[in-house]
Amino acid sequence: MKAKALKLGRTRLALTALMAAGLLTTAIPAANAAATAPPRIDLRVLVLDDGGSAVGAIVAQLKNTGVPYQTVALGAAGRPTVNAAFLSDTVGGRPRAKFQGVVTPNEIPFGSAAAPEQAALAAYEKTFGIRQVDAYTWAHPEVGIDYTDRNGGWSGVLDGAKTQVTPAGKAGPFGYLNGPLTFEDNDPSIPESYGYAGHPRDGFTSYLDAPTGGTLLGQYAHDGRSELVITFAYNQYQEQFQVLAKGIVEWLTQGVHLGQSRNYFSVHVDDVFAPDSRWDPAHHCTPGDFDCPTGGTANTDIRMTAADAQYAAQWEQNNGFTLDMVFNAGAGEEWKTEHGGTDAMAAQLLAEKAKFRWVNHTYTHLFLGCIQDTTTVPWSCKKNADGSTQWTTRADISGEISNNYKWAVQKGLPIDRSELVTGEHSGMKVLPQQPVDNPNLAGALADNGVKWTGSDASREPDQRAVGAAMTVPRHPMNVYYNVGKAAEMTDEYNWLYTSKANGGSGVCENNPSSTCMPAPLNTATGYQSYIVPKEAKTALSHVLWNDPRPHYAHQSNLAEERILYPVLDKVLGDYKALYAASAPIVDLREKDAGTEFSRRASWDKALAAGSVTAYRIGNTVTVQGPRGVAAPITAPEGTRKQLFVGSTVFGTAYAGARSDWSSPELFQSAITLKLPA
């Protein structure tokens, strides 16, 4: 007995010594079990950043979609060493991979295949089956591609090149794409994209082919590792990257990750029922809208007709798209009184009210901020005798909101009282004249149950609180409120975007965010040839970038020559030419866009605080975060969410995967998903 006890005591001492030295982290019985247990893989991406635009673009996509990541700046002094301990460890007796994917500048981010950090990274990827994206490299055998001087290879400028997603790409991570992908060519005098198209070697599967037939993007499987090799330069703002970005992340994460993305596009039509003032090309201003100090020419206001209302409903049906009618009933009633007591346009819209969405825009479009002094250009806020600002009262603001809502209810409009867009986004701060919100605004919103109010994304791109309500930033479309004809639109565009030397206002010369056109557009052809494609491209870039902000134009743009439709037609047409039916445009109403923003803000805060734990073990995914914070999760088709008893299909289908904002079920502290076997 003594000998046996002595032997056990020595064993314990030996184990204690090993553990103290850091050479043994689990008890002996558990170590044998862990050797065959599937590893834990944390749902986080490692980014090895060289400061280049390619890595920056992928980081922007990760951030934009809510995918957690950790960055190591390769050139930074004192950065962590990327070794086995940095990449993996053991948790609860189970090996843990700390990152589910790695983004690198190229195939050898540490400069040499023999570098210790390079060897550690390769061993990590091989051991745990982790994938690596080579953000930008050239065609050569070390990435599974022939040099460009062999087998029909090519290198050069890709601007305007029409590339093809291969059958393997469509069957794999880029299955959400449908047609060819044309690289941007915004200015023929300035090269924007350069690439290397080489012939694939053994182990390389091309996902994107150049016009010459060589590959520009594909998977290289070798030595027990997988790399996504990209051989063209890009940045986060280029359409070709925005189209491919989702597939890059899906490949990197093997289709299982935190974060989600959609392609959003919704269009608000402001001032419905109200007339809009018309641009005066002779005086370069808009009479009646405080920017004509000399008065200008009194032109007929712009307002939709019954035929325009019919056309809008038919256009929606033809395109499978719903417009949001942001309306001012009181302004319409005033117009009706002034025109013999009849309003065929309003009657037509009301007859087809179920075909549209409707948003309260206040009753008469009253300016809800400070009381405006319009004796000067630009206007200023009127002051009381003591120098304080004169504000529109809470009662007046509340009346504008409630009267419009009551009218809508009486007419049977399908309206949600929680949604609002104030006229000109007034009531909220507008620089430089009104640097703060009207202090009476928040209370009036609460009085009327308003939870979401539109804001101008060109001034305030981010969501913020107005009392208990939240803003919904909206993108202004560059189709102006004061034009109903293409020639008018082009004339005003020329005035704003032409230098003084060329007959314009020169505003473009003094605004650092703007550029001047080299010459004015032809007013007969400039709208269709220049403005439409330019504005459609801008809107489409928002759609492709997981941006839920609504766009807004005005009822005047659906009247007369109906100049908004060519822009919308091009956005929708270009989108459908690129994307498969599995990735339809998501047309959110205002409150849903606001909810999306609020969820993202909570999620980003949770990630920044490090309060999210998420990992995969085999085919089980576990996600735990702060109470009350929904987690965005993307997983393959066939994934099920575990309930307290049983399970249910997880999320909604989009772009070949399933995704959702998810929270733990009743009696559960974490989200548990079962992936398809």
Concise summary:
This protein has 677 residues and is α/β, with parallel strands linked by helices. It has a 9-stranded mixed sheet with strand order 3-2-6-7-14-13-12-9-10. An 8-stranded mixed sheet has the order 4-5-1-26-27-33-29-30.
What does this structure look like?
The chain has 677 residues and is α/β, with parallel strands linked by helices. The protein folds into four domains: 26 residues; 231 residues, Rossmann fold, CATH 3.40.50; 324 residues, Glycoside hydrolase/deacetylase (TIM Barrel), CATH 3.20.20; 74 residues, no CATH class. Helices cover 30% and strands 21% of the residues. The chain contains 17 helices and 33 strands. Strands 3-2-6-7-14-13-12-9-10 form a nine-stranded mixed beta sheet. An eight-stranded mixed beta sheet has the order 4-5-1-26-27-33-29-30. It has a seven-stranded parallel barrel with strand order 16-17-18-21-22-24-25. Strand 2, helix 3 and strand 3 form a beta-alpha-beta unit. The longest helix has 19 residues. The chain starts with a helix and ends with a strand.
